[in-house]
Batch of 2 targets.
Target 1
Amino acid sequence: MYSLRATTGRDLVFQSNGKWLYPLFELEEHIKRHCITPGDIYLEDKIAGRAAASLMIRMGIKRVRIRLLSRYALDLFEKHDVNCSYDKLVDKIDCRTEDLITAGMSIDDTYRFLRKRAGFIAGLSLKIDNITAGYDGRDVLSGLSLELEAGGQLIVTGENGSGKSTLLRAVLGLVPVRAGAVLIDGKPALTEVAGGKAAYLNQIDNSNRDPVSAEEVVRIGFASKRLRKDEADYKLELAMRRTGCFDLAARDFHELSGGEKQKVSLSRCLCQEPGIFLMDEPTSFLDSGANREFVSILGELLLVEMPTIIIVSHDRGLIGSIGWSVKHLSGGRLSDD
Amino acid sequence: MISSMLEIILLPPVMKGFISLMVVSAVFPISGVMILRMNLLQMRFMLTHGVILGGALSLVIGAPQLPVIIAVNLLVVLLLIKLSDDDSGNPGRISVLLMVLTIGLAGILMHKFKVAARDTLSILWGSPFTLNVSDMIIILFIAAVLLIYAIAGFSRMNAVFFNADLAQSAGVNVRLHRTMIIIIISLTTAAAIKLMGALLVDALIILPAFIAASFSGSLKKSLINASLLGAVFGFGGFYLSVQFDLPLSGSISILGGAAYLLVRLRRKSL
């Protein structure tokens, strides 16, 4: 007897006997991979408290049967119009996770918390220790240090020419670091970058006009990996659908608008499945609509993968709308904003 | 008309030349796409001069021309890569330097060893019908290397062409692929020169890539279209050459040039 079963009509689409909330995370991945409409699923689960109910609601499941259900979970299901039947109702499921979820947490907050607790954080820690870096013998960054925990987010602001882009390029090894060290996940950054662990969303560059399709640009994200064709196609489609640009796949990248180019570039980064996203002025060529879309994609990214992200920007609108911690770069060093 | 063409093609020296020409014209434009994407036109001029040095050297030492030309070009390109590394990765300036040095050295060799300039300058024209079996094997081998790299290394090559910084951040070994691409270009240029001559090698390598880039919306399409155009120019040039007793390299060049002008006119009229 499986602890979790998902059916659509008479077809069994998924079953698992895994522990804790893992079967639900597996189901979420299965739904995505097989493009199943969550609303069509009838889900049977052994136990559901507030955590499991939040995951089911976030997946978009509308019909569930639970053998042992907590009252908190029942309230959540009713609040989100989920058709729920159960064998036994209890006040509370006795589990540490249930204790940690507070009433004030939204479904998204709970989801993020549970993914973190399940160890599904794609983010890697970043440590920049007293580095000096620059071009042609001129130090742009001098004695700069920064520490960011796995899954952390930071915005770096600064005047033009203050070295914001140089900071990102130094992490990527594109600018020689003359002194100090850059560590990703405790290892030298150069090794980790060579393994594709850091994705770079660069400023839109219009100098290269050679024809290249949007799909080819996205495929750069996994260019260094040996993937089977079906696997590569799946990753490509998933990444482009997430940013809403799959319909642009065959178009020449250079003929796209700034917003469309940014979506394609973000898909490229997603395909790379990095631990760290480094974004250089990501909204500088976007109109307000495209800007909003970018922020929403960023929110989704933080919710699902929880990567470590550094954005360098002087876009006050972006800084205000995402509410991350901000550091200011001046004189080659970072200070709190 | 077709039977007389076939009769001519079936003659052993013509057959060797025809097969080599068709392979080269269908495959070598891929290296033309590489040259354009990596902005290496200046380097290609350097390679042409390297070919003249290789030709002069082969005459001095009495060795087979094609292997010597390829070896000299490889040496020149390796020197270019080494010197470019020491010059902040700027191959443009180093190309000019090596271009001057190679042609200067060729001049000294010809003068000192009393090589008839006419013999060396025959390299400027070339002909597929003078190929021997070993030349043909070398050319087919280089075509195979180019084709295998373009297919197996497509995604990495695409990344390097699009943006070297992004390629590196995606884990692509940019330096390795740049080196491989430059070496492949040097091999194809040297091999194509035996067929087309140093002066007209662009018609076979660059022109199809140029034309394809003007109407292809992706790298993949650029490569396929350049190959198809190259094959059409190669076959068409061969046909014109046999039918009207014209030099092959000239026929291919005229065909390629006319196609390029037509595409430009069409784009202007749209």
Target 2
Amino acid sequence: MEGAPLSWYLILSAILFALGVAGFLFRRNIITVFMCIELMLNAVNLSFIAFSHKLNQVDGHIYAFFVMVVAAAEAAVGLAIILTVFKNRASLAIDDVSSMKY
Amino acid sequence: MRHLWLIPALPFAGFLLNGIFGRRASKAVVNAIAVGSVALSFLWVVKTLLSLGGMETPHAERYFTWIESGILNVGFELAVDRLTAVMLLVVTGVGLLIHIYSTGYMAHEGGYYRFFAYMNLFMFFMLILVMANNYLLMFVGWEGVGLCSYLLIGFFFLRRSASTAANKAFIVNRIGDFGFALAMFLMVVQFGTLDFAGIYPAAAEMPAEQTAGILTAIALLLFVGATGKSAQLPLYVWLPDAMEGPTPVSALIHAATMVTAGVYMVARSSALFLQAPLAMDVVAIVGLLTAVMAATIGLTQFDIKKVFAYSTVSQLGYMVLAVGVGAFGAGIFHLMTHAFFKALLFLGAGSVIHALSGEQDLRAMGGLRKKIPLTFATLLCAAVAIAGVPPFSGFFSKDEILLAAHHHAPWMYWVGVITAAMTAFYVFRAIFMAFFGDSRGHHHPHESPPSMILPLAVLALLSLAGGFIPVPRFLEPLFPAEGAHHDFALVAVSVGAGLLGIGLAWLFYVSKPGLADSAAARLGALYRLVYNKYFVDEIYDATVVRPLIGGSRAVLWRGVDAGVIDGAVNGIAQRSRDLGILLRMFQSGNIRSYAAWVLLGSVFVLAVLGVMGGLR
Amino acid sequence: MDVPLFLIFAAIAVACGVNVVVQRHPITSAISLIGVMGSLAALYLLLGGEFIAAVQVVVYAGAIMVLFVFVIMLLNAGAEGRSGRSWPVRLLGIPFLVLLLGLLSFVVQAYAPKTDRVVFGAFTSGGPRDIGKLLFTEYLLPFELTSVLILIAIAGAVVLARKEID
């Protein structure tokens, strides 16, 4: 019984990652941008799991697990920041948040 | 342990006490500390020398290891042998007399405690210099006396000429010290040690084919140091200017002790010099030239201290001639008698200046014989001593040198004799101009206080009788005599030359006073050349000082410093600024554009890794 | 069965991923993202990651995305407007994205072993027992540190979401 080649998984991961980057670059809503970051993290997780299968080691799973933990913490803090920004500026457009510059 | 360290430590303690507490202390306390410390030091010297007896071998005391680095091991080590013994007695003895004299001479000057603090510090360094048992410690003393000389020449630091003269002395001495330092480096390389006891036997055992190069280099470099400190050609120019300092300083440092350090050093290094005949010849010729040249200048000067200053240079030339022809004992002998009579000349001159309230020009003196008879009498003693009139001290030491010179090369003897005649002439010229004839000034001279007359009297006694101290025989174990026989004819000629000089001086300045001016007028250009000291200062100014200052100003300051260094620094700052202005465009505050740059960077890194095959 | 299953879930994931990016309304993006995560969980199962597939559904699709949706609702976020003031994005965005994807694909094609196939059941140690064992032995310190991280995140979120920020 033949399975799909490993490189397919990796290329799927690359496609999802590139989609995440594209969303980060072209979306202007902060929440969408944030979700694109999650998309990128998921894409990387897929690579971890795929390599874990290839190398027959569980460590990749552990890494994916830690990525999820960090994503959860990040979501909590990031959404709180978004709330604060919205409270102060009444806007969710990422281009309006540009006061940290020269 | 004989506690040799006490000898330099006592003046040093005096320096510390006077230097720290002297400002608030009364003059009596300052006097007591300054004179007392030197007197105790002198007494300790006498006691030590008596207890050491014959001193056939050096008595060395090592107190601690000062520097230990690789093969180099330098200890703080003091030693006394016969040569050091002579130097110790001269330094502390004459030093003590001059300290006593200074209490009277400096009584009305400001910065009284400062003067004595410096004098005591000088004594400390001078004693370190003569007692050091290795070259590095000697160098410490060497530099230290140079420092004190600088401080004391510039004692009246509000006078511009004094601070200039101090700078000149310091800078010219640096050239010599540079030679000394190089010589020490060479010694470390060659012998691996700086101890006298280690170097001299090694130098004596060196085969002849090796000595020519390295030992000649070491000896010549050491002699460069000596020309700076002992005011020989071509570095003598600082000594006449050093007369800007107070007169006791001129007597102690610039006549009796410090300037003879070069002669002492060459004598101390005799083992090196004897292995380097070429260096010896250079030493002798430089000494002889210095003696003649300084004597001719001395003939024409009108400042009484300048006359004696050039006389000092000339007499130092004699000493260097002596060590150069191998008559180390005679050189040290002359060093000692010179310390007596030249210190006396300066102190007497100081007494004259003191009596005339600061007048130094011989043309404004005259007829002082009756007004200050004691000063006149003592100065006359010094004059007959330096003129080489038997049986006074200068006669013995100078004759030793001239005989040794004749033994070495007869022409040196004849030049020396002519110099002796000139010496007698200029000294008596000064005496006659100051003390005979009619008073040309408008002063009311007064005799000096006892504190000044007493040292004069003691030094007069030493000048008259010092020649009977058998220094050369005492030093014979260190410096074997060359076998110069006392030739009556040679002695007679040199004595005759001295008497001729005195006679001419009498003729020119006492019996026919107008003769000097007419002779000067007849000689014309030659007289002006000598009167202006051969324009040596001007020549140095034009060839060394001005190009140096001009070059520093035009090239190093305007070109290198302002142009290159400042330009580079400011340029870098300006370019950074421009670059920063450019780069801060990236800091737009827009998160998405940051993301775009990150994307650009990651693509770039990936591409580079892919191209270079670094992904595997 | 493996290849069709992979193709099905990969297609769903890519389609949902494209939807995340192209939709203008955040709530649609969020729902699409949940779709991506669900199909990824299925792919994890194919790769033998039973535990991680469960966590993906429970934590990611469940907890985190609920939080997102909650915030979207709370802020009443509508469709985004056009503001596009970022010239580097317009200049570099599309070409470099294509370049990135091309490079990644090239790297994968060039270096990934071509004979390796992902066969369901070949990897069996992805269960909770194995992961738990590793997590509490070799990765104990990082694991404990994550608890500190989460604590800090909670504290930070509380501070940030307070009514007044001084």
